[in-house]
Amino acid sequence: MIRCLVVDDEPLALDILEDYISKVPFLELVKTTTSAIEGLSLVQNNGIDLVFLDVQMPELTGLQFLKIMNGKCDVILTTAYSEYALEGYELDVTDYLLKPIAFDRFYKAAQKVLQQKQHNTPLPLPDSLSANTPHNFIFVKTEHKIQKIYLDDILYIEGLKDYISIFTKSERIITLQNMKKMEDVLPSGRFVRVHKSYIVALDKIDSIERSRIQIADKIIPVGDTYREFFFKLVDNRNI
Fold first, then answer.
1. Cα 59 vs. chain centroid, distance in angstroms?
2. Local confidence pLDDT in tens for the 239 residues of the chain
3. Rounded CA separation 128/112 (Å)
4. Alpha-helical runs (H) found in the chain
5. Ramachandran quadrant class, 24 (left: phi over 0; alpha: psi -120 to 50; beta: rest)
6. Cβ burial 4-36 (10 Å sphere, 16+ → b, else e)
7. Can you name the residues that pair with 27 across neighbouring β-strands?
8. Are 217 and 164 in contact (CB under 8 A)?
9. How far apart are CA 82 and CA 33, in angstroms?
């Protein structure tokens, strides 16, 4: 299920989108609101997957909302003005619906979100290979195949905008996933996130100097958010 929020200062627009969402089996409406400020709070605190967002609103415009939200979830813009489409796509929205919105066009946009989420989701592991159970490999989707990667071979993982790179002893593997999902799949006793863009294999660290980690010939920064936890983890393994 994709958890949805609708933000629009027009009550009629809210009613129409609420009705449309109720007709799509993979969409779940969390709330509708005429307040952009309330909408931002809901995105930050309520596990929203998708926002249907009006562009022209009195408190914040939809484009300002997007910039503040900073990629927290998927967004489909809804507006009567087509001139905002280009800027919306530059801010990485999933789709752009021009009012009045026909149901078939709405459904097509929702399908796009569903397909992206299915494509970016790591393959589920059997119970015997869950993230909380020791295992020695993972499967990831690459462009043309599903690839098995042994955990012992992973040096570090680097996250970029729409994909991640898994660096092993012998190759770089690119997959359309996000860092949070990869972090959840990897066993925490062996891998640790040290930066918004990096996860490292603890046993592959060659040295640590100040806030820089060296693994093979790669220097990896330790981000402020992750520094305290990382160094506590390292201290607990000191002899």
1. 27
2. 899 999 999 999 999 999 999 999 999 999 999 999 999 999 988 789 999 999 888 888 888 898 888 888 999 989 877 665 455 445 678 888 888 899 999 999 999 898 887 765 444 443 333 444 345 888 888 877 888 899 999 999 999 877 899 999 999 999 887 788 888 788 877 899 999 999 999 999 999 998 899 999 999 999 988 888 888 888 766 65
3. 33
4. 11-22, 36-45, 62-69, 85-90, 103-120, 179-185, 224-235
5. beta
6. bbbbbeeeebbebbeebbeebeebebbbbbbeb
7. 2
8. no
9. 23
Among the residues of 173-237, which ranges form H helices?
179-185, 224-235
Q: Which long-range contacts does 65-74 make (Cβ < 8 Å, 24+ apart)?
A: 65/7, 65/36, 65/39, 65/40, 66/91, 66/93, 67/91, 68/40, 69/40, 69/43, 72/43, 72/44, 72/48, 73/43, 73/48, 73/49, 74/49, 74/50, 74/113, 74/116, 74/117
What is residue 120's predicted lDDT score, i.e. its pLDDT? 54
> Measuring CA to CA, which residue among 236, 230, 239 is closest to residue 193?
230
Tokens of 99: 């009012």
What's the Cα-to-Cα distance from 95 to each of 88, 126, 135, 238, rounded to whole Å? Answer: 9, 34, 39, 50
Task: Output the CA angle 224-225-227, nearest 5 degrees.
Answer: 60
CA–CA dist 127, 133 (Å, integer): 8
Q: How far apart are CA 138 and CA 151, in angstroms?
A: 7
